[in-house]
Specification:
The protein is of the alpha+beta class. The chain has a single domain (6-276), classed as 2-Layer Sandwich (Alpha-D-Glucose-1,6-Bisphosphate, Chain A, domain 4). Helix content is 21%, strand content 34%. Strands 1, 2, 3, 4, 5, 6, 7, 8, 9, 10 and 11 form an eleven-stranded mixed sheet that branches. A hairpin with a 4-residue loop joins strand 3 (45-51) and strand 4 (56-65).
């Protein structure tokens, strides 16, 4: 049996989202001694790793051309779609619908030759006014999902993704993460702050809304007045994907390394799957 995860009654949607934003915040990525380390760029995805006491952290960022963030978000939010693009995920169950913006999902994973794993997570999501979408999740305990002998229960400290409307100049192969407009910063802070007025009650670490300005680290499109210029720019979705997980038991080093490089790319695989379905 692994360590006890968060009780469903203990953790608030705002706290989960704040914890996710805190971890992907660019200003926090290089803080000593526990910083994110750039590992590689594979298939256009920047991959970062981070070592925790027991958990493994992986993060991926990429630009997906001709992908609408709203359509992509709706595709990803359907938990049953995950088996179509995540090679390690073999099944999922909708456990509980909590609110219009949160639910409980059980996922089943196989990473041969390691023992099969399962996770039970509370997911919550939010659409921001600057055309960005957040889905964040963390492990919880739930009365309808007891541990079973055939699966080891892994612990997800925090996971999720941020999707933003984005553009890059034609002829450029990667996103520019050097700046974000002040207008977009203000919209992210204001929108999220309105839903963060309650006092946190969860053990999940939190982030103050004033720190969110550096979370979206690209020239995301957020102003209604901006005219889209398809002659000079390619439009699409910029994603940041994060998972911090404790597998709770032995996994071969070669398997773990392969997984840590492949997993940041699953949203790219998801976009390809969505396009193949004509979404």
């Amino acid at each position: 049996m692994g360590e006890k995860t968060n009780s469903i009654k203990m953790i608030d949607n705002t706290d989960i989202i704040q914890s996710f934003l805190d971890e992907i915040n660019v200003e926090n990525r290089n803080t000593s001694p526990n910083s994110w380390v750039f590992v590689s760029n594979l298939n256009g995805v920047d991959i970062f790793h981070k070592t925790f006491d027991k958990h493994i952290g992986i993060l991926g960022e990429a630009f997906l051309p001709d992908v609408n963030p709203s359509t992509f978000f709706n595709f990803l939010r359907k938990a049953g779609n995950r088996v179509s693009f995540d090679k390690s995920c073999v099944d999922s169950n909708d456990v509980d619908k909590l609110t219009p913006e949160s639910d409980v999902i059980r996922y089943y994973f196989k990473l041969w030759p390691a023992a099969p794993r399962d996770v039970v997570v509370k997911r919550c999501w939010k659409e921001l006014k600057n055309k960005s979408f957040i889905l964040a999740e963390t492990s919880i305990t739930h009365s309808e999902t007891p541990e079973v002998p055939t699966y080891l229960r892994s612990d997800v400290a925090i996971a999720g993704y941020l999707l933003s409307r984005h553009r890059i100049p034609k002829g450029k192969s990667s996103i520019d993460t050097s700046s974000i407009s002040e207008d977009v910063k203000g919209k992210v802070e204001s929108d999220f702050a309105q839903s963060s007025s309650t006092t946190p009650t969860s053990p999940v670490p939190s982030i103050s809304p004033s720190m969110l300005s550096s979370t979206l680290t690209s020239a995301a499109i957020g102003t209604e007045e901006e005219v889209e210029d398809y002659e000079n720019y390619i439009y699409g979705t910029k994603y940041t994907y994060l998972v911090v997980v404790d597998p709770m038991a032995w996994v071969p080093e070669t398997v773990l390394r392969k997984w840590s490089l492949e997993y940041p790319q699953i949203l790219k695989a998801a976009a390809e799957e969505m396009k193949s379905r004509g979404r």
